[in-house]
Design goal:
- By secondary structure, the chain is an alpha+beta fold.
- The protein has 3 domains: 8-105, no CATH class; 118-230, DNA polymerase, domain 1 (Orthogonal Bundle), CATH 1.10.150; 248-391, hpI Integrase, Chain A (Orthogonal Bundle), CATH 1.10.443.10.
- It has helices at residues 63-88, 94-105, 118-130, 145-165, 176-189, 201-220, 248-256, 263-278, 282-285, 319-332, 342-353, 388-399, 404-411, 416-420, 427-440, and strands at residues 8-12, 19-28, 31-43, 47-48, 53-54, 293-296, 299-305, 312-316, 362-369, 372-379.
- It starts with 7 loop residues before the first strand and ends with a helix.
């Protein structure tokens, strides 16, 4: 009876010799496992290459025991492969697979110590960060919870990529080819559970930055010698995005729209207006409480230590924000709307803005979708996010004549370059700004 092919094949290691070791070969997912045992030898005359077993002959009385050993090796390989796939959902590397087989077959051998690999290192790296063992080299403090969350997101994406490729991802795999394939995966193949869309270029760039951080630390700790992530081709990709801002008139129209019949949209709109009038990041807006409101010589301010920069800023409270505070104090006893998750806020602010006539106008939006540059005509409200409020504050403040130094101190920007990314002006806005500057100089 012919032997059933399970995928594990046995061959003579040295078929022309008088006696030979037996080599087990298992091909899987474009990889090949080869396994031998030093004591498992047979005289080549007793080997049946068709059955891949010892011949059933009186001249070799130990053939039955010999074949039982081969059966056990075959079963060990198949079980180990199935168990690894079930546990990790990945294809094992050849080295890991071989170590597992050796452990299962070498009962009297000390266990093989598995060197830490990429995923195990990242898990330890994140755990150390949570325990305050990673420092922000700018301020000497432990990295923030926001940074740790991005590490976790990057790790999940690497796991998803490995699952998609059905292979284990190792330190040595992080090279230029991985960079190209990973970028392609995130921009074309992967779909976010929240947005149901692939990632934009700048989001991918942030995850590449984290991967370079992981690899740099692993190299520093001598866990790998792979420094391909430092090659020119392994670059953090970036594209200039066309972010919008709301003009002063648009902000005012949004503020005046009656959302009293939909408290959910009203709360999100009110928080957005506070952002338009203070320039605070969403992380700081969500932390606002009564104690952040101070009165100094009859004037009201929001005074808060900004979470990202850990610098204190004091921002004058506008009449709009004062009215919002009064409304919530009368309704809830608190000064500010109850915060919600960033994703929900982004969804709801678009929904709220879609009701405002001034924000229904069409705009041309250029962006990269699944790796291709596209130009689309969409309503302005569809481009509004939590961050739009901060951009609106910065741009409108400059257009009203406030100096860059003052606005940068209010927003917490440290450099002109980072601040300029927040300004969104068309040619008419630039002409208006130039006119203001000429008036200040007395030239017109």
């Amino acid at each position: 009876m012919a032997r059933i092919n399970t995928g594990v094949n046995f061959y003579l290691k040295t078929p022309k010799a008088k006696a030979s070791q037996i080599r087990a070969v298992f091909n899987y997912s474009y990889q090949r496992l080869m396994y031998t045992e030093a004591k498992l030898k047979i005289e080549t005359q007793f080997w049946n290459p068709n059955d891949q077993r010892a011949r059933n002959t009186k001249s070799f009385p130990g053939h039955s025991t010999f074949n039982d050993t081969l059966d056990k090796i075959e079963l060990t390989i198949l079980d180990a492969y199935r168990d690894y796939k079930n546990e990790f959902g990945l294809e094992p590397s050849v080295d890991n697979f071989l170590n597992i087989i050796k452990q299962k077959r070498g009962k009297n051998l000390p266990p093989v110590v598995k060197p830490i690999e990429l995923f195990g290192f990242i898990e330890n790296f994140i755990e150390d960060a949570k325990n305050g063992l990673h420092l922000n080299l700018t301020n000497g403090r432990s990295v923030s919870s926001v940074t740790i969350r991005t590490y976790e997101q990057t790790y999940k994406l690497l796991q998803a990529y490995a699952g998609f490729k059905k292979q284990e991802l190792l330190f040595d795999d992080i090279n230029g080819e991985f960079h190209s394939r990973f970028v392609n995966y995130l921009t074309k193949e992967y779909k976010s559970k929240e947005t149901k869309q692939s990632f934009k270029i700048n989001t991918v760039g942030k995850h590449l930055t984290n991967i370079k951080t992981f690899m740099s630390k692993a190299l520093e700790r001598k866990l790998t010698s792979n420094n391909s992530f430092r090659d020119r081709g392994f670059k953090v990709i970036h594209e200039n995005i066309e972010s919008i801002y709301l003009t002063s008139d648009e902000v005012n129209s949004f503020y005046n729209y009656d959302f009293s019949k939909d408290k959910k949209l009203e709360r999100v709109r009110d928080m957005f207006i506070i952002g338009c009038d203070t320039g605070l990041r969403i992380s700081d807006l969500k932390r606002l409480k009564k104690e952040h409101v101070i009165i100094d010589d009859g004037d009201m301010y929001i005074r808060i230590e900004m979470k990202k920069t850990e610098k204190i800023t004091s921002i004058p409270i506008t009449k709009r924000v004062e009215n919002i505070i009064a409304k919530y104090e009368s309704m809830t006893g608190e000064f500010f709307p109850k915060s919600i998750s960033d994703q929900k806020a982004n969804d709801y602010i678009k929904e709220a803005a879609s009701h405002v006539e001034e924000l229904k106008k069409s705009v041309i939006y250029n962006t990269t979708v699944e790796g291709e540059r596209k130009s689309m005509v969409i309503p302005k409200y569809d481009l509004i996010t939590n961050h739009t409020s901060r951009r609106s504050f910065a741009t409108n403040a400059i257009l009203k004549g406030l100096s860059r130094d003052v606005v940068m101190k209010l927003t917490g920007h440290k450099t002109e370059k980072s601040f300029n990314r927040y300004l969104r002006m068309d040619e008419r806005d630039l002409a208006k700004l130039h006119t203001l500057q000429l008036k200040e100089l007395g030239l017109i």
